[in-house]
Amino acid sequence: MGVSVAGPGSGRDVVARSEVLVTIRRRRRMYFGMGIVGVLCLLLGCGLSFPTDPDHTLDRVRGGVLRAGVSPNDPWIVWTAETEPSGREADLVRRFASSLDARVEWSRGAEEALIGQLERGELDLVAAGMTAETPWTEKAAVTKPYATVTGPDGSAEEHVLAVPLGENAFLVTLERFLLSVGGG
Fold first, then answer.
1. Is 89 found in the same domain as 35?
2. Residue 93 in contact with residue 35, Cβ under 8 Å?
3. What pLDDT, in 10s, does the model give residues 40-55?
4. Does position 157 have pLDDT exceeding 70, yes or no?
5. Which long-range contacts (CB under 8 A, 24 or more apart) does 174-178 make?
6. What is the H or E stretch that residue 70 is in?
7. Contacts for 97 with CB less than 8 Å, ≥ 6 apart
8. Number of domains composing the chain
9. Same domain for 61 and 38
10. Pairing of the two strands 65-70 and 103-108
11. Is residue 55 within 8 Å of residue 121, measured between CB atoms?
């Protein structure tokens, strides 16, 4: 009768080490998952909400002032020297401000100047009869198209409004408003 001795490198030892490695990997995945859950709980427990506004645009506008830049573009924005702006987008801006219990402070200018003010945080929104083909998408966030009309050449034009880049809670709130009113 022979005696079997399991020494280092024997089959049993290799199987045992393999099982230990599998157990260690499982525990690492479990601890990693628990860490992710812990971080999420911490973030959510601290009142962090998504989407967010790094510059707090929505919080500042709600119950305060909506700083709107407009560039005349009939029938979207019409502005004579004696009056406040009128037109389809001006009416939308007023209704949006009202939905936030805010009043509108209007600024008139060329699109390029208004987009610059938007970038510098001097405006909250730009309305200028812009289409989804606007060249300003690297400098401003634009809403999803809220209205589609037939352009002068007979093609479909999708109209958008512009807000500061990164102010996602404000953008989402504006898009929800536009969706709820059907584009005005």
1. no
2. no
3. 545 555 555 568 878 8
4. yes
5. 174/96, 174/125, 174/143, 175/143, 175/144, 175/146, 177/95, 177/96, 177/99, 178/92, 178/96, 178/143, 178/144, 178/146
6. strand 65-70
7. 61, 66, 68, 103, 104
8. 2
9. no
10. parallel
11. yes
